[in-house]
Amino acid sequence: MISEAINEILNEQINKEFYSGYLYLSMSAHLKELGLNGFSSWMKYQAKEEVEHGLKIFDYLIDCNSFVTLKQIRMPEFEFQGILSIFKTVYDHEQCITKSIMTVAKKAEEECDRTTLNFVDWFIEEQVQEEEVIKNIIKRLELFGEDKVALYLMDKELSERAE
User: Which terminus in the chain has less CB density within 10 A, N or C?
Assistant: First the structure.
């Protein structure tokens, strides 16, 4: 069984992952309203991935004979200032999630909990990949500016994200 401190921090992480899903669904809906179906689809897939991360932690706690304590998920933002702003918000949010995961890893190190530390390594690698993907989308949006053809092509490209 894992320590009470590790249990608490992992339960908090579940909530953060589920909140990420809510936030990205909110963004997906906004992008859909703008007629950017590819961006919307990409963001909806991202939301699903975040919920899966929360469920992975959920299962880990149960597998460790620990307790899952689901907490209230706060309401996400739902008003945004354009596509670039949305992706910058996603990037900032992912950096916060990365910090949070690193806090879990630090706590696991302090507790000499090698099992949790090993478990969290997967999330650290995942965060590196997620931040890189978002950063590349932001770079392209900044490069293309208001070019509607480039935006159309990018929307089409993002619609092809496979599950």
Answer: C
